[in-house]
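Section 5.1 Outputs to date
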Amino acid sequence: MKILLLADEESKYYWDFFEKSKLDGIDLIISCGDLAPQYLSFLATFAKVPVLYIHGNHDYCYDETPPEGCICIDDDVYIHDGIRIMGLGGCMSYNYGPYQFTQDEMKKRAKKLKRKLKKAKGLDILIAHSPAYKLNDSEDLPHTGFEAFIDIMDEYKPKLFAHGHVHINYGRDFKRESYYNETKVINAFEKYIVEV
């Protein structure tokens, strides 16, 4: 399955210079957050595949203008062609925004999904906005990763963990691809195509 991952910055390749053929061969589109709802709606209009999304820390506009034609998988387990996908959006709480959470709050959100994961008999892909704790995150509070994501990867060993939130232009040691045990970790900033 070929998945187009998106996060944080609308790709000019898929918006300003869009051609329908650029989506050929894509089996699924997933937003890891902080993208304009109009951008996701635009892609959903032309894509022949589902467009899934979770909330980034700046996606409070989705409450009034959700991405049309897209599927929110935040706090849910979604199954597409047998691939089990879990979504946990938001980032570390730094100014009490609606999509900001403490470490304990994220652990509680993950725990609430255990029944759905049991019913799905496991997990193939974890989708989040923030990175995992000490795995491609940063030491400043807003960009600190979540311990819950490490726990999920330890327990369920998904094939893929995709996140955004840490931008390529932040001047940090940006890592597009890495591994945590058997899990491939992708920073989906702007756009990235991965096969699962």
